[in-house]
Design a protein that fits this description.
With about 210 residues, the chain is an alpha/beta fold. It has eleven helices and five strands; from the N terminus they run βααααααβαβααβαβα. The protein has helices at about 25-35, 45-55, 55-60, 65-75, 80-90, 100-110, 120-130, 145, 155-165, 180-185, 200-205; strands at about 10-15, 115-120, 140, 170-175, 190-195.
Length: about 210
């Protein structure tokens, strides 16, 4: 838990998805996507580099599925391969940490408002909105719909407005990326730099004695 997270009362929580609720992709999942892209399996680092180079623009809704994958592959895939790439890509990000979900269920039952703020492309956003755990969230904001990614302050502002909290110091922001937490702290939010331990999240959300 970061020093900025205190055991004081909270009015709301803003949560990242991937790396907090969602589990990071496995090597097997990366290899499946690389094979779908017809990328040499022995050159996975180069595939990941190509994948991430255009990802911010894709997450921000500035690139269509076709434009994104054409950038990654340096050629336009056919319609069938495009669907396969999008599906394999989406599948990589939909495994969740059940222990984190248990913590969020308890927070939800206590009446604490939970808001999702995720950098995610449009198709993945639509898939996540249909997941059962999404009902725990008062609202959800995705970069492709906002047309802006964290750590841009505008992304946080949308989520902060949705919490209805008057004091940002009574809102906890949870993210696995330190740069996103740094931007949140700059806006006055309390932060938890999540490092994969659900007990840290449970402690941060525990009501004061």
């Amino acid at each position: 838990m970061t020093p900025t997270t205190a055991h004081a009362g909270l009015d709301a929580v803003i949560l990242d998805y991937n790396g907090v609720i969602g589990l990071q992709p496995t090597t097997d999942q990366w290899l499946r996507l690389a094979r779908t892209a017809l990328w040499p399996e022995d050159d996975l680092p180069a595939f990941k580099h190509a994948f991430w180079t255009a990802r911010t623009a894709y997450d921000a809704g500035q690139l269509s599925d076709l434009a994104y994958w054409a950038t990654v592959l340096d050629h336009h895939p056919g319609a069938r391969r495009l669907r396969e790439l999008r599906d394999a890509d989406t599948d990589m990000w939909t495994s969740i940490d059940d222990h984190v979900i248990d913590v969020l269920h308890k927070a939800h039952e206590s009446g604490l408002p939970l808001v999702l703020l995720s950098n995610a492309p449009r198709h993945l956003s639509d898939v996540l909105d249909r997941r059962p755990w999404r009902r725990l969230m008062t609202d959800a904001f995705y970069s492709a719909r906002l047309q802006v990614c964290k750590p841009d302050p505008a992304a946080y502002q949308h989520a902060m407005n949705a919490t209805g909290a008057a004091d940002p110091d009574r809102v906890l922001f949870v993210d696995d990326r330190d740069d996103n937490c740094h931007a949140a702290r700059h806006l006055g939010l309390r932060t938890l730099h999540y490092t994969g331990h659900p007990t840290d999240l449970a402690a941060a959300l525990q009501p004061p004695n």
